[in-house]
Write a structure and sequence with these properties.
Helices cover 54% and strands 11% of the residues. It contains 4 helices and 8 strands; from the N terminus they run ααββααββββββ. The protein has a 6-stranded antiparallel beta sheet. A hairpin with a 7-residue loop joins strand 4 and strand 5. Helix 2 packs across helix 3. The protein is rod-shaped, with a radius of gyration of 68 Å.
């Protein structure tokens, strides 16, 4: 049998392996790639510089903003402190005003109570004075009636002062103008019986201290036969409430009351109830 002949192609043993050698690049391609790379690098550089500048600007802006914020905050804190201090001062002032108002109200209440009490006391005193004046007026009226009955048949006689009587009268007249003081026995203030007792002591006569006892210390005499130096009394004998000494010419001298003191008065203005003679 006839064998067919197949042509055999002889290949190198390395023909199926790609060459490990890099293809050769021409100069223009390299140049272009270098240019592109350079542009990218330039762009990155510009971008980096721009970013750095922007970061610097941002940092500066942040620094400026922070300084302004700090100053603003300090101002606000100061204003807040001032406001707090002012509020505290206002509160204290208001508290002081409230306390003063409360004190004034309390004082006004106290003053009003005092005024009412004084008004009530004055009213009571006025009423008592009115009643006393009415009683005194009634007493004087009764005494005038008695004196009128006693003098209707005779005339009051004035005897001249002589001897020890003159001493009594001189002492009494020397005390005119002195003050009246209840319980007073001199030398510058007297009550009625204290003055009469001291006057008669100048003449060596010791009289009792009070009016009631002095009204019975001597010989009773009629009011129509009075003599200088006779002791006059008002009220009942033994319980008289006032005494004086007759000094002649229808007058008598006594320590009258706190408003008059020691004075000389007309007997007709305040007639006595009776009289006694000691000298």
């Amino acid at each position: 049998m006839r064998e067919s002949l197949v042509p055999v192609v002889l290949m190198s043993h390395t023909a199926h392996i790609r060459s490990h050698r890099k293809p050769r690049r021409n100069g223009s391609t390299l140049a272009m790639r270098a240019g592109v790379a350079g542009g990218v690098l330039s762009t990155l550089a510009v971008a980096g510089a721009s970013g750095s500048a922007s970061a610097a600007d941002a940092s500066t802006t942040q620094t400026l903003d922070l300084s302004a914020l700090t100053a603003d905050l300090a101002t606000q804190i100061a204003q807040s402190a001032d406001a707090t201090q002012q509020a505290a001062a206002n509160y204290e002032l208001q508290a002081q005003r409230d306390a003063a108002a409360a004190a004034a109200a309390q004082q006004a209440k106290t003053d009003l109570a005092d005024a009412k009490a004084k008004a009530a006391a004055k009213k009571a005193a006025d009423e008592a004075a009115r009643k006393a004046a009415a009683a005194e007026a009634a007493s004087r009226s009764a005494e005038r009636t008695t004196l009128s009955g006693a003098t209707s048949t005779s005339t009051t006689v004035s005897a001249p002062a002589s001897g020890s009587v003159a001493t009594v009268v001189a002492f009494l007249k020397a005390q005119v103008g002195d003050a009246y003081v209840m319980g007073g026995t001199g030398p510058n203030s007297w009550d009625c019986s204290g003055l009469v007792q001291a006057a008669f002591k100048q003449a060596g006569v010791d009289l009792p201290r009070v009016s009631g006892d002095q009204s019975t210390a001597g010989t009773p005499v009629s009011l129509s036969n009075l003599a200088v130096g006779d002791i006059l009394y008002w009220g009942s004998a033994g319980s008289a409430y006032h005494v004086g000494v007759y000094i002649g010419d229808g007058q008598y001298l006594d320590a009258a009351n706190p408003s008059k003191g020691v004075v000389i008065q007309d007997l007709s203005g305040y007639p006595a109830t009776g009289a006694v003679r000691v000298l």
